[in-house]
Amino acid sequence: MSSVTLDHVSKQFGDAKGVEDVHIHIESGEFFTFLGPSGCGKTTTLRMIAGFYYPTRGRICFGSRDVTSLPPHKRNTGMVFQNYALFPHMTVFENIAFGLKVRKIPKVEMKERVERVMKLVRLEGYGERRIDQLSGGQQQRVALARALVIEPQILLLDEPLSNLDAKLREETRYEIKRLQMELGITTIYVTHDQAEAMSMSDRVMVMQGGEVQQVGTPHEIYHRPVNRFVASFIGETNLWEGIVAGIDGNEVRVRVAPDLVLTGYAHNVSPQVRLVPGETVVLSIRPETVQESTGADGENVVSGTVVLAEFTGACVNYVTSVGPHQLRSMSISQGRPLKQRGETISLHIPKASIYFAG
Ligand SMILES: Nc1ncnc2c1ncn2[C@@H]1O[C@H](COP(=O)(O)OP(=O)(O)OP(=O)(O)O)[C@@H](O)[C@H]1O
Ligand SMILES: [Mg+2]
Fold first, then answer.
1. Residue 339 and residue 342: Cα distance in Å, rounded?
2. CATH number of 238-356
3. Whose CA is closest to atom 16 on ligand 1?
4. Of 127, 130, 270, 286, which is least packed with CB atoms within 10 Å of its CB?
């Protein structure tokens, strides 16, 4: 197992920016995820770690070893590509054995290692099948086995679940996590699915437009997003603009409408934001923190008209029109009758749930 350091790494494709100044240290044995929308630079960064692209600037180290100019086959990384890239004319066994054949591993050892890894990914008995006789999920596991069989120091997975249906995604997600924990292998995982990133990772790097927005634990990026992009990309949130009306110790009052002032805590602020009276600020309020209020008065109680009421079984979701804003709220269903569209509702926004995001 090995740690991975990207030391101010950039990749330029001619005039086009691939990624810009990525500076991270991934711990040995960590499950680390690159998360961001399409085209943000996830695959480019992963390919530089694998050695398929060389950085335009910066250095890449595995542990203390500088691998920046090493070709892929000398890096001892196992990679699962976005589209699996399996050999369709070969059997499952031949696909998995490929990397060992290239490395000239003796036949007996090769057979042993392929069988061990087939067991690990639960593909026992499938050795003689051709790839085109497998389901999407089974193909995905062949790709994973092919990466694992070379016993890599670092496992690189590029959207390995993107072609699977919802149920299979969830199962395979669990499988990958189980394998990673069992083998203790440093794993770098690429996805644009935030739920996947949140549930699997030790830490997540959120990217946009080739640049790193934030690196943190799932808890940090969810509860302490550094800017409004991260706040809205990770989970759902209400982003309300307002003007700082006053600061009193740790309490910050923000005017979000001519007749509506909300209070939050000054410590719930992104390091990129300065709270100054008269300045515009963006409040991030998570829907699950907003709850129906029994009274119409009180601090941070807002009233409005229901524009959307949704019952999902476990949850009740409302979208409420509050002055110039819309407020999404989400609560566990308690068997109470649902408010209907057009009805008035009062909602409480707890002070502690307001985060000043930018
Ligand atoms: N070989 C290349 N030549 C030119 N531009 C490239 C090349 N590879 C990637 N790019 C550009 O670099 C940027 C980042 O691409 P990358 O493939 O890393 O995105 P991604 O985050 O993996 O997206 P997706 O989620 O769609 O896979 C994009 O703007 C892309 O067009
Ligand atoms: Mg990609």
1. 9
2. 2.40.50.140
3. 41
4. 130
